[in-house]
Amino acid sequence: MRLKLLVVFILLSNLLLAEKVTVALAANVSYAIDDLKKEFNKLYPDIKVEIILGGTGSLTAKIRHKAPYDILMGANMMYPENLYKDGFAVTRPMVYAQGSLAFFSVKKQDFSKGIDLVKEKNIKRIAIANPKTAPYGKAAFEALENAKLLDEVKSKFVYGESISQTVTYATKVADLGFIAKSALFSPKMKQFKKEVNWHEVDPKLYRPIDQGIVILKHGQKSQAVASFYAFIFSKRAKDIFEQFGYLVP
Questions:
Q1: Which whole number is the average pLDDT over 86-114?
Q2: Per-residue pLDDT reduced to its tens digit, 12-26
Q3: 203 vs 199: CA distance, rounded Å
Q4: Structural contact between residues 36 and 235, judged by C-beta atoms closer than 8 angstroms
Q5: What domain count does the chain have?
Q6: What are phi and psi of 146, to 5 degrees?
Q7: Taking the CA of residue 202 as centre, how many other CA atoms within 13 Å lie in the half-sphere pointing to its CB?
């Protein structure tokens, strides 16, 4: 009987010790997050990482309405900076990765035309993330505007609420899509070839996409949260980000 009670006590103790980190995650990082979680759990096997995925603008709105998230990993710096300024975040925003844009098609395209490809008659629908809520959508608008193409092609746009939804639209309903380059390194997208199915958008056409991370008020007293936050800046995490096409500080 004593042995059984001891076993029960140990099991209960382990459950009590098990901690959880809830991360509000920009959709473009969804392709890298599984590898990041696996590497983190090699160091901290008892910490569960729960991911809430969405557009950074939508996630920020939920945080402002007291959603119980511990960390925001945004797709730009604006939302983390505003959360910090307004007291919803307890750490200053830091850049954890720098993202880039690509344009993509499931069909073979002549990418030697560069971004002017959007004008072609066979490109009737263009998937693009909502620029009001998704930083990669905003960057795509900026690139097209700087290339003096936005007014000419915006009637072709099919809008996704996040970059992951935009990838789905680009693969299923659109002839071309402006997506995060990181998406092209996911297992489902690796079959598509550079210069056949995708090409990088000229980085001179849009401002660098600095992606920011903050610890939120809900997670400020958690050692597990602090551990995950520190891990994101480790060499192990940086190597994973680079594997998914990001630049890292």
A1: 96
A2: 444 444 699 999 999
A3: 12
A4: no
A5: 2
A6: -65, -25
A7: 14
Arithmetic mean of pLDDT, 139-145 = 97
Expressed as residue numbers, the domain containing 108 is: 100-205
Beta strands in 55-192 (DSSP E): 71-73, 94-99, 101-104, 126-129, 157-160, 176-180
For 14, the 3-state DSSP assignment is: helix
User: Does one domain contain both 117 and 167?
Assistant: yes
The secondary element (H helix, E strand) that includes residue 213 is strand 209-215
Q: Dihedral (C-alpha) 190, 169, 204, 152: value to the nearest 10 degrees?
A: 140
- Alpha-carbon distance of 81 to 2, in angstroms, equals 55
Per-residue pLDDT, 18? 60
**Assigned token pair, 211:** 């992606």
The band of 81, judged by pLDDT with boundaries at 50, 70 and 90, is very high
pLDDT at 65 over 60: yes
Q: The whole model's pTM is what? A: 0.81
Mean pLDDT of all residues in 159-179: 94
Residue labelled with tokens 């830091």: 94
What is the C-alpha separation between 123 and 100, in angstroms, rounded? Answer: 22
Looking at the fold, whether 30 and 48 belong to one and the same domain comes out as yes
Residues paired with residue 177 on neighbouring β-strands, in sequence order: 104, 127
Query: Could you tell me if 182 and 233 lie in one domain?
Result: no
Q: CATH number for the domain including 140?
A: 3.40.190.10
